From TrEMBL, chain A:
Protein name as catalogued: Dolichyl-diphosphooligosaccharide-protein glycosyltransferase subunit OST5
Main subcellular localisation: membrane
Originating species: Linum tenue
Assembly description: Component of the oligosaccharyltransferase (OST) complex.
One Pfam family per UniProt: Ost5
Role this protein plays: Subunit of the oligosaccharyl transferase (OST) complex that catalyzes the initial transfer of a defined glycan (Glc(3)Man(9)GlcNAc(2) in eukaryotes) from the lipid carrier dolichol-pyrophosphate to an asparagine residue within an Asn-X-Ser/Thr consensus motif in nascent polypeptide chains, the first step in protein N-glycosylation. N-glycosylation occurs cotranslationally and the complex associates with the Sec61 complex at the channel-forming translocon complex that mediates protein translocation across the endoplasmic reticulum (ER). All subunits are required for a maximal enzyme activity.
Subcellular location: Membrane
Residue ranges of the TM segments: 49-71, 91-110
Cellular component, GO, one term: oligosaccharyltransferase complex
BP GO annotations: protein N-linked glycosylation
Residue ranges, annotated region (Disordered): 14-36
TrEMBL record, chain B:
Keyword Transmembrane: yes
Summary of the function given for this chain in its UniProt record: Subunit of the oligosaccharyl transferase (OST) complex that catalyzes the initial transfer of a defined glycan (Glc(3)Man(9)GlcNAc(2) in eukaryotes) from the lipid carrier dolichol-pyrophosphate to an asparagine residue within an Asn-X-Ser/Thr consensus motif in nascent polypeptide chains, the first step in protein N-glycosylation. N-glycosylation occurs cotranslationally and the complex associates with the Sec61 complex at the channel-forming translocon complex that mediates protein translocation across the endoplasmic reticulum (ER). All subunits are required for a maximal enzyme activity.
InterPro entries per UniProt: Ribophorin_I (IPR007676)
PANTHER family per UniProt: DOLICHYL-DIPHOSPHOOLIGOSACCHARIDE--PROTEIN GLYCOSYLTRANSFERASE SUBUNIT 1B, RIBOPHORIN I
Name of the molecule in the record: Dolichyl-diphosphooligosaccharide--protein glycosyltransferase subunit 1
Example GO biological process: protein N-linked glycosylation via asparagine
Membrane topology: Single-pass type I membrane protein
Subcellular localization, as worded in the UniProt entry: Endoplasmic reticulum membrane
Protein's pathway: Protein modification; protein glycosylation
Lineage: Eukaryota, Viridiplantae, Streptophyta, Embryophyta, Tracheophyta
Entry keywords, A to Z: Endoplasmic reticulum, Membrane, Signal, Transmembrane, Transmembrane helix
Organism: Linum tenue
Length: 111, 524
């Protein structure tokens, strides 16, 4: 009876230790949720694309910024058209904004 | 009437035919002082006890109307206590493992329902000093024969035991199938006590081994009567300086045996003291603040602030580095110099630093199932010495964040300290949810304190909601997954890039405005 109870104590602690050793790995989703077929949440854009996207969007944005300033420099007050300026500015700011976001994400600052 | 509520139907029926065997036990119970050693006042011998039980059965049948009247009177006095007295424990065995700094106690109870009604709960009692150091209580009910045992996990809840003497704390185990009268069941309970080993002498020099006191009771404290009980204490080495004797007591190598003791009444207690050598590292994390920051762009960033201390006997005298390095087996046997942190797999950007800067004495080993970070503080830790440091790492989001079918997202993460073999006095876990999250709620298997905060991080306007969970007395058994649920509208993820876009557009618009505004003073 003594040996049996020693084994029972060892089995209980082993079972609990096995549960705990299993958990530091990526914990499996709770059984109820697994039954509900929970799916993992991933980033909207694959993470491996972040550096490429950053480079391309920033370069496009800088090209459009350059075209904006060239337009400003080469046009006189009479030939300037406000809508063209604003659209160029908006497009440039869109690409620069997203490009800087992807630049932050690619360098490890997960905003 | 606390003393009167001890009296149950059985005790009164015993008093009716005036059997003297249990009267002394009843008198001691009435005085409410269970610290008095019960050795002298125990009932005489087994034979008279069986006679008493048989007479009790006969008297029950004979005095039925009187019994009913008394039962009605008692039920008016205190209803809850009558349930506690209808159970008795036939056989109790307790195994205390003192090999590490946490005392692990494994209790096997063979419970019998001697009352008339089905019992749905079993109560456990702990003395108040033990209850405040109690880290974890787990219970399971065993059923089936010796080889084919099946175990069903039982829910344990702290409860108030109204008639507990000297402030004993109670825990209620809810049985899956209520125990019918006359039936027996076996229940196994595992509980852990932190800071229950007191170093004595409290200060030692570098070449001394560490000796500690362990205080407990030879009799298992229980709200029920125990027919037969034994307690085994396992020490980490054969060096036991002294131990109290409560006959019959035996010592064989690393195991001390107290018992078997026959037929003890409820709440019997006999304090014992064991003085033994324990050189296992007493690594205590006095405070741990873990911050888990969720970013929906694909990363989980964890930052942990540790205050590590050596909780054993303090070092007196000087620390000699020469002795420590030349004779490691004789010098600083109770100190420790490295710790192992078990991290999830696919961990990246791990850093280990303190206020001075980076600590380079660390090693990270990764494989597909786990990562192990072995850290070495700047100096080995002796008794009373402390060390503070910060460990941080990043994890991929898809391993931990899931979306349930009702649209809520939840984080599935492990509670507890990743450093193995440590006891945490106070653990604060902060889960930082992305900006725009609503209705956070946590699902945790054990009780914690929760409250909300706000944190301002990168590109934040209104701040991120932070769910703060606090727990005291955390042991490695608490490293189990928990979930934090919240709702998040994915459109809020656009808030960050749109903020950047609008800032850049503001610059362009101001440039356009500057070029169009004419502020010169001239004709025309």
């Amino acid at each position: 009876q003594l040996r049996l109870s020693v084994n029972a104590a060892r089995d209980f602690t082993l079972r609990i230790q096995r549960q705990n050793r299993a958990s530091p790995h990526s914990p499996s989703p709770p059984p109820a949720a697994a039954a509900m077929a929970s799916k993992p949440v991933t980033a909207p854009v694959p993470i491996t694309w972040y550096p490429t996207l950053a480079v391309f969007m920033l370069s496009i944005g800088l090209l459009i910024t350059a075209s904006f300033f060239i337009y400003e420099a080469t046009s006189s007050r009479k030939t300037r058209s406000l809508p063209k300026e604003l659209t160029t500015g908006a497009l440039a700011s869109f690409f620069l904004g997203f490009g800087s976001l992807f630049l932050l994400l690619a360098s490890g600052v997960y905003v | 009437f606390p003393p009167v509520s001890f009296l149950s139907l059985h005790h009164l029926c015993l008093l009716l035919p005036s059997l003297p065997t249990d009267a002394t036990a009843v008198r001691v119970l009435l005085s409410g002082d269970f610290k008095v050693s019960q050795a002298e006042t125990r009932p005489g011998n087994d034979a008279s006890d069986q006679l008493g039980a048989a007479a009790m059965e006969a008297s029950l049948r004979a005095h039925r109307p009187a019994a009913l009247l008394i039962f009605a009177f008692l039920s008016l006095l205190s209803v809850s206590s009558s349930a506690a007295q209808e159970i008795q424990i036939l056989n109790a065995e307790r195994r205390i493992d003192l090999s590490s700094q946490v005392a692990i106690v494994f209790l096997t109870l063979k419970v019998e329902n001697t009352g008339k009604a089905a019992a749905s709960d079993v109560l456990l009692a702990f003395p108040p000093t033990e209850a405040e150091h109690l880290a974890e209580v787990k219970a399971q009910a065993a059923s089936g024969k010796k080889r084919k045992k099946t175990y069903a996990h039982l829910i344990v809840e702290p409860t108030d035991v109204p008639d507990a003497p000297n402030g004993a704390k109670g825990f209620r185990l809810a049985l899956h199938n209520p125990l019918s009268p006359g039936e027996t069941t076996t229940i196994e309970v595992l509980y852990m006590l932190t800071h229950s080993m007191e170093p004595f002498p409290a200060e030692i020099s570098q070449s001394d081994p560490q000796l500690v006191y362990y205080r407990d009771s030879a009799y298992i404290l229980s709200p029920y009567r125990i027919k037969q009980q034994t307690t085994f204490i396992k020490t980490p080495s054969t060096n036991v300086q002294s131990f109290s004797r409560v006959e019959p007591t035996n010592r064989a190598g690393m195991e001390l045996k107290y018992g078997p003791y026959e037929d003890l009444p409820a709440y019997s207690y006999s304090p014992v003291l064991v003085h033994f050598e324990n050189n296992n590292p007493f690594a205590v994390v006095e405070e741990l603040v873990r911050e888990v920051e969720i970013s929906h762009w694909g990363n989980l960033q964890i930052t942990e602030h540790y205050t590590l201390a050596h909780g054993g006997a303090k070092l007196k005298g000087v620390f000699s580095r020469v002795d420590y390095q030349s004779r490691p087996s004789a010098s600083g046997v109770s100190s420790f110099k490295n710790l192992l942190a078990r991290l999830p797999p696919r961990v990246h950007s791990v850093y280990y630093r303190d206020e001075i800067g980076n600590i380079s004495s660390s090693r990270l080993r990764t494989d597909s199932r786990k990562s192990e970070l072995e850290i070495e503080p700047r100096y080995p830790l002796f008794g009373g010495w402390k060390s503070t440091f910060i460990i941080g790492y990043g994890l991929p989001l898809e391993d931990f964040l899931f979306e349930s079918t009702d649209g809520k997202r939840y984080l599935n993460f492990t509670f507890g300290c990743p450093l193995s073999g440590t006891v945490v006095d106070k653990l604060t876990l902060k889960v930082v949810l992305p900006e725009g999250s609503k209705d956070p709620s946590a699902v945790i298997p054990f009780p914690v304190e929760e409250h909300m905060e706000t944190k301002y991080s990168y590109l934040d306007v209104v701040g991120r909601p932070v769910l703060v969970l606090e727990k005291k007395n955390v042991v490695p058994e608490h490293n189990i997954p928990f979930q934090v649920y919240y709702t998040f509208n994915p459109i809020f993820m656009l808030a960050e890039p749109l903020m950047l876009v609008s800032t850049v557009f503001f610059l362009f618009a101001s440039c356009v405005a500057y070029l169009h505004i004419d502020i010169s003073i001239r004709k025309g």
